[in-house]
Automatic annotation (TrEMBL):
It comes from the Bacteria. Belongs to the glycosyl hydrolase 2 family. This is Beta-galactosidase. Its EC number is 3.2.1.23. SUPFAM superfamilies: (Trans)glycosidases, beta-Galactosidase/glucuronidase domain, Galactose mutarotase-like, Galactose-binding domain-like. GO terms for molecular function: hydrolase activity. The keyword Cell membrane does not apply. The keyword Glycosyltransferase does not apply.
Amino acid sequence: MATREKTTLATSRLEHRYVEDLGPGSGRSAPRAAPRSDAAVLGLDGEWRFRLAAGLHDTAEGFEDPAFEAGAWDLIAVPSMWQMHDLDGEAPYGKPQYTNIHYPFPVDPPRVPDANPTGEYRRSFTLPDEWPEGGRTLLRFEGVDSCFAVWLNGVRLGDGKGSRLPTEFDATVHLRPGENTVAVRVHQWSAGSYLEDQDTWWLSGIFRPVSLLHRPEGGLDDVFAHAGYDHAAGLGTLMVEATAAGRVSVPELGIDIATGESATVPVEPWTAETPRLYDAVVATATERVSLRVGFRTVAVEDGVLKVNGRPILLRGVNRHEWDPDTGRTLSVETMRRDIEIMKRHNVNAVRTSHYAPDRRFLELCDELGMWVIDECDLETHGFGHYGWRENPANDPKWREACLDRMARMVERDKNHPSVIMWSLGNECNEGENLEAMAAWAKQRDASRLVHYEGDYDSPYVDVYSRMYVPHDELDGIGRREEEPTRDPAHDAHRRSLPFILCEYAHAMGNGPGGLADYQRLFERHERCAGGFVWEWIDQGVRRRTEDGREWFAYGGDFGEILHDGNFITDGLVFSDRSPSPGLVEYKKVIEPVRIVIDSGERTIAVANGHDFADTSHLRFTWRFEDGGEEIASGGLEVPVVAAGGSVRVVWPEELRKAAATAAGEGWVTVRALLDGEMAWAEAGHEIAWGQAPLPHPQAPPVIGAGVAPAAVAAGYRLGGAEFDALGRLTSFGGIEIEGPRLDLWRAPADNDRVAWGGLSTAAHWRERDMALDRLEHKVLDVEAGGGGLTVSTRVGAGGARIGMSAQYAWSYDPEAAKLWLTVSVAPEGEWAHPLPRLGVRLAVPKDLDAVTWFGGGPGEAYTDTRAAARIGRYEATVGEMQTPYAFPQENGSRIDVRWARLAGTNGTALTCFGAPHFAFTVRPWTSEDLEAAMHPHELVERDRLYVNLDAALHGMGSASCGPGVLPEYRLPAEPAGFTIGFGTERS
Ligand code: GAL
């Protein structure tokens, strides 16, 4: 018995050896583009029989045998990821796990744990009667995570690794007429997992489509369309390399040539702004392949990144493939939606971080227009924790696996005009395998640039790329004045390269701050070709509470012991793809047209920042508002401006006339809108805007003569305002109010809270000697004088020696029926860190839920995230003013608010007036509630509304991964004063 068991174990080890061997697979066909063709195809997506084994020791013996009885097994959708099933129910196939850098298993390459969830898939299919005779038939998997073996009719075809890359097996000799059975065994962990340590969820399965492809005798197994553009001559040159001789025709261009021959003809070039594609057919006697050809030439000239002879500016995002319900299995609609949202927000570039995406995404990038850095499925970041010892990227044992991945990406994607750079992978440090991958890519495809960030000396790449560098360093790089390379031999090369920030502006939670400051640098320095915000989408997993409320899970929400929390929700769109305030800000910051209104000269300057497109696709409108009310509007005639050009027009007569009537604060807004419909947006969609006030003096508030306070039983009365004995306002105009009192705290944003080395800003705020999260207010004196009530206080925390004196000077203007408050603060002791906020907080009745304000809007804005805030009059409910960050934190503040009115349904209203402005937040919970909650659905509304009226705010920065708040947006603790007025209405 003992012997038998031993034998079984040994046999199974042998049979499963591929899981831990370093090679990329066996039995596979050579990688190729597999272009669309008229050869027979049979899709094998749909329901497959499925069983999840606990590990290699637990597999179903003989499951590959067509006669195997799997009728009792579950049915699972292919493609899908098995951990994404029924997460609010039984979660029958395990749950997602999220780690950023750490491998979730012992680092013992190439071994993986015995607890290695293994999915066994089976399905039968009927080969159609008309399936062609002869030729070959390939069984193609677009993506299987992370390692798998395949059988057809009980015969093992081979195995593969490289999760986000295609694998094909030759099925020809084992395919039968009629009924066939395919069986696939998929392992969550494999040697390949060591190469796939990207910052995302660990998920498994056959997650991209599966198909059977006929390869006719004499057909076109592979084609490589070379389509360059000579911008000086306006000519495109097409040459198609093919594995079989055939003819290439592009009817629209009158091209009809043999494969291997080239034709040069006048064409419209392809760019991300003008994605002109030509339909081409490559044909042999037995097969017709269709291609969509885009003519363009990518080059580095004089250290500048150019396409078709012109410098380009990448306004990019890093995109993981993510769907909150299905993980990395995406529908084509979702892929299209991503590009539509990007284009609608002026994004023109995608880095496919950190693996080759579903191939259909690239087809859409070609069609809709997007510059793409196509990145190889390679990351070994976890080795960084161990000094990069045994790093697969630098170990000859892994060379074949690395090269295989590069070849599979390049071969698959080589015909996409949108792809302008091949990226070797992400965060693999340095290594000879990377160098070999670069060399291979260059010899295979000289028409694209090679990108890799992790080797700072950049010896074998064509662009200098970094992530998260602070603004001042970027400025230096832009001037080509960066520190020399460690290896002096590489310095001249690196200094000659264009520069990109392949990741910057970490979009985690509230922020990123400082986007506009980055953009100014990108636009200032010719060397800078722009950057890619990290990242496109919050990778939250959609869940529902028992009572049906939706929420999004992040690391740790599935009971994982090892995880990296909400670092996975750091996107410009939320998990449900609704735009975050960060995306709205980014849209404004990268707008490709700049509109500058000069209200002194009465002119409007329009600068076209497109790299290729003129402005003929845009129309312009103007609007004049007085005190936030529209007075007049109309169309604006702007001559067509060429890319890179600018024009200045004078204000239309009607605008001049309207402006002359302004009684209050006058604002001119000019907008650039799509004139006609685009594939990604409707006509009228806004691309850019500019705004300027009429020159008008900032008048100080008119505070009337004031009345004397009266002592009453409860405390004091000042006009319509009641105060308690400690001088705290309790009501005004019959509206119950608690506060206002000095408030310095904010629920730490991710950018306050997360730090890489050293204490985070929020940790400083919480330190015992500062403890801004638990301030106490001590009333020192209440003075009822002739002009009003003055309350002197000291604010400080238990255990802290430092404090802040705060004086509240109240006065009441009977004529205007306004109550005025001037707050004066002075820090006492050494305040070593900036303040989160400087303002007051008050609580008001819950029914004052209808908000109108005149100031910045419509969305939230902080000092360093305020580019998209427009001055105007806005309306919203309190609920609508909350931003649902996946991890609750400070949010929702409106900037530069002149006045804000909170109205109830019964005709009661409270209006707050700035002198001149304040930042305004109102929420149905407190900052402390926000801070305590882990997810938005845990926030419980209180019976009052909490209003923050802030004189100043600390910026957001991007310290959750990158630089903190720039000096100009920090809020130092120093003596300050501000004034706020209150008025009420009652029916
Ligand atoms: C980068 C990495 C990304 C992501 C990001 C932080 O270092 O390349 O994958 O982890 O940091 O969110």
